[in-house]
Amino acid sequence: MNEDAASFAEIGMIDIGDAGAAEISTYDPQTKRLFVVNNSKVNQIDVVDFADPTKLLVINSISLSAYGGAVNSLAVSNGKLAAAIEAVNKQENGKVVIFNTTDYKEVKVITVGALPDMITYSPDGKFILTANEGEPNDDYTNDPNGTISIISVNDNYGVTTLDFTSFTSQQAALTTKGFRVFGLKASMAQDIEPEYITISDDSKTAWVTLQENNAIAKINLETKSITTILPLGFKDYNSDANSSDISDRDNTMTLGKWNNVRGIYQPDAIAVLESGGIPYLFTANEGDAREYKGFAEIKRVSTLKLDPTAFPDPTFKTETKAGRLNVTTTLGDPDGDGDYDFLYSLGSRSFSVWNGNDGALVFDSKNELDTKAIAEKIYDDARSDDKSVEPEGIAIGTVGRKKVAFVGMERADGLAVYDVSDPKNPVFLQLLKTGDAPEGVLFIPAKNSPTLKSLVIVSSEGDGIIKVYQPKTI
After folding, report:
1. What number of CA atoms fall less than 13 Å from residue 335's CA on the CB side?
2. How far is CA 410 from the centre of its chain?
3. CA distance 418 to 427
4. Tally of CA atoms within 13 A in the half-sphere of 209 that contains its CB
5. Residue 155 burial (CB count, 10 A)
6. 40: Cβ–Cβ under 8 A, 6 or more apart, which residues?
7. Helices and strands counted in the chain (H then E)
């Protein structure tokens, strides 16, 4: 039985709460249960009966109030649910708590780094990894190191937590390639903020997005060490293929070219697809700014002093052109003369494919997510000045005979589906409407699915809605 990867349609939906609910979901094929983060009014994991995806029902919940602050991420393997939980004081070390998926009993509590934001099991189930952001406090007076924790399941959940201190000597060289260290009085190890993790099929290598820093870290799981930082560089918006709408006050959704305006990739979610011996890394290039009371990097172009040679058009800073665009103040003045020769906005309004060995850019969707969202009338023009459709979640799976990528767009409330059988040349298939602000994108292969067909689950943090999509058979 083959599946048509271009025919996904919604087959089920459930609303589990208000804003903050349904941020991330994970599925246990042994119990046919979906476990969902719910931080809307309570700090808990909701358990959803998923035996019939057309009739979803919350059957239980696991309270996490005894373990600290909010739960940020979930993962399942071999009947064990792992939850990443931040401390009440976010700058203190967080926890990973393991539960049975059958009776929800606690199995183990493990201390990890500060603010564990994403958790995942290795494909072989032997490791649990967390990306610990280590965000500063609002005054920027306490900025813990960003870290990655590696938990050995078969070693009584023994944990190794890695930081980036050893890369300090490489900071200058990495910065010339687009790596960013810019926090207030922050060392490199403090400034790095791990965001999201993907792991190779053989469970030997992990890649971790360093979102604010515009890079990907490579981890050797056999030696439990960080081996490489891969800077991602910048995107040039002065081309037809990268043309963008950068004003929320122009009363139109017309895409244009912008000289000396660039995007910082800054990926959130990452997924790996191995093909021809090469690990291809797919990233959702959301972008993220540091905005704290003690330090805020973003200003609108209209408030900045621009170099008259780089920006000769006297109307460039008006609201209907570039004046409303949010850009970072930490880049763009390479000659140090006090005016901006280049403007750098957050994210790249796209998803990209990178060579996981050397970090080379293999593919970028350019402005296709924007153009498809505009065509389907789901583009939010009010976000044009910021990060546009804001790609955030990404997942890859096999649907029928094709490798397929699913890209969640937080501000368009949509899910783009691509044929990535050739990872160097993804081909758009369809666009699906989701709940408000889709955060988690989860693929369930047909072999693990209760319907024996491929399923995609999208969890939306804006309205607490979970939607399930399934393709037609051919």
Report:
1. 8
2. 10
3. 5
4. 32
5. 11
6. 16, 17, 18, 19, 20, 21, 464
7. 3, 33
Residue 438, CA distances (Å) to 3, 25, 135, 268, 441 in order: 25, 11, 23, 13, 8
- How far is residue 463 from each of residues 38, 85, 378, 384, 438, measured CA to CA in Å? 11, 22, 17, 22, 9
Residue type, 136: P
> How far is Cα 187 from Cα 191, in angstroms, rounded to an integer?
6
**Cβ distance 62 to 49 under 8 Å?**
no
Q: Do residues 405 and 282 lie in contact, with contact meaning Cβ atoms separated by under 8 Å?
A: yes
pTM summary value: 0.98
**Residue 116 to residue 240: CA distance in whole angstroms:** 40
- Strands 414-419 and 402-409, by their bridges, are antiparallel
The span from the CA of 423 to the CA of 234, in Å, is: 21
**pLDDT tens track of the chain, all 474 residues?**
699 999 999 999 999 988 888 889 999 999 999 999 999 888 999 999 999 999 999 999 999 999 999 999 999 999 999 999 999 999 999 999 999 999 999 999 999 999 999 999 999 999 999 999 999 999 999 999 999 999 999 999 999 999 999 999 999 999 999 999 999 999 999 999 999 999 999 999 999 999 999 999 999 999 999 999 999 999 999 999 999 999 999 999 999 999 999 999 999 999 999 999 999 999 999 999 999 999 999 999 999 999 999 999 999 999 999 999 999 999 999 999 999 999 999 999 999 999 999 999 999 999 999 999 999 999 999 999 999 999 999 999 999 999 999 999 999 999 999 999 999 999 999 999 999 999 999 999 999 999 999 999 999 999 999 999 999 999
Which amino acid does the sequence have at 285?
A: N
Element (H, E) at 459: strand 455-460
Taking a C-beta distance cutoff of 8 angstroms, is the pair 288, 352 a contact?
Answer: no
Alpha-carbon span 329 to 182, nearest angstrom: 10
How many residues would you count in the chain?
474
Structure tokens given for 415? 């899910």
